[in-house]
Amino acid sequence: MTRRLGRRAVLSALAATPLAGCAIPGDRRGTPTATPDPVVLPYASDDPEENLDRARGFAIQNRTGTEHFVTVAVDAPDRTLFVETRTVDPWSVFRTGDIVRKRGVYRVVIETGAGDRAVHGWVVWPGIEGFEAFLDDAGLRTVQSVFCGPDCRPVSVGGESTDLPYRAPDAAFSTRTAALAVRNATTTAQDIAVGIADGDRTVVDYEYAVPPGVGVQLPVTRTPGVLDLRLAADGETYTEAWHVPEEQHVRFTVGAASIRPDCRDQTPGLAVTRLRNDDGDPHRLRIEISTDGDRVAQQTYDLPARSSLPEITIGGVSGNASDDTTEPSESPTGSETPTQDDEWSGNPEMLPTTTADADRYDLRVVVDDERELTATWTICYPDDELTVEVDADGTPQLFSPTRGLIRL
């Protein structure tokens, strides 16, 4: 285990780059303006060691069919470097040109004539790029990700960590890298603490000073299992069990007095849309679904050898059930979802239902009452529809269209 840089050592790199406030001149009615005082751009330090090899700017993309009047201001600690207003045509890009070469974090404020406003701490540092702003139907947003391993100056403050991605010494096999992303959605810098443990082993115990609008990403583990995750920011704390590899990428937003997962809105919950038997022998497959610890559905299916049942839906539909039965749901043919002991009869609508707003999903698959697979989601919903497969050895497996085999 290696000890990382302490807070004071890293913050000294930030001392020259506080996020100063700025006022934005310009007439929202459409009169273009430019930087009021002469500033030599790109802004650079007299010390060559503090400068990047090349200057940087950024772009604002208008992804709407409407023109927008946009004002952009960029602040260094002691001066305004850049102010410009212009009309951005539909489906076009506003490029600032080269603004800075000196390393640091710069305050960027973007406003539109429609009243949208974004504040971003633009990180200008070797190896950190990708700052962009977007105007779309959802409004104005900025994007910049900093990849940490766990250090990532000038955003990392310090702490301790194993080598990332973590590999447990007693792990039977490795999985794809599971990653954590945390974005600061406020308009001020936030101190964000990240704690991840595998039982008694510390995987990451680190602190980050994250500028507004910036996201921090860590490649955390390649070991399947359950990690203890803890995030803290602005007096708020979030703790949860993180299941790997089911939850391969967990994403969080730090807002005003809140820390929340933002990876739940893309999918309706747990949904299995295909069953497949790749074995040369027939198998009886039982699927159980639980939400928040309560079993809401159980179904049994007889799968012929080398067969598949496509275009089905298990879960993802609102419903409530007892431990023994599922609630009926109307199908195009008017059939009802069967009880737990009903077997597959060739009707793809005879399937269980689950709720889409649960905090925890559990999936259990049993083949011939002998071999079983279990999967759990507590932070993020499954990011794709799932396929349950019985492989050539009669072992149950879980597949995702985008991720392939989810090796459990």
**Annotated CATH topology of the largest domain:** Immunoglobulin-like
What is the H/E order?
EHEEEEEEEEEEEEEEEEEEEEEEEEEEEE
The CATH architecture of the largest domain can be named as Sandwich
What structural class results from the helix and strand content? Answer: mainly beta
The whole-number mean of residue pLDDT values reads 82
Which CATH class of the largest domain is shown? Mainly Beta
Low-confidence spans = 1-30, 316-353
Q: DSSP strand (E) fraction?
A: over 45%
- Sheet with most strands: 8 strands, mixed
How would the global form be characterised? elongated
Q: Reading side by side through the largest sheet, how are the strands ordered? A: 6-3-10-11-16-13-19-20
Helix content: under 10%
What is the alpha-carbon Rg in Å? 26 Å
Count of alpha and pi helical runs? 1
The tally of domains stands at 3
Count of distinct strands:
29
Distance between the termini: 27 Å
Pfam family, one: Ig_halo
Domain Ig-like: 66-137, 355-398
InterPro entries: Ig_halo (IPR058929)
Protein name: Ig-like domain-containing protein
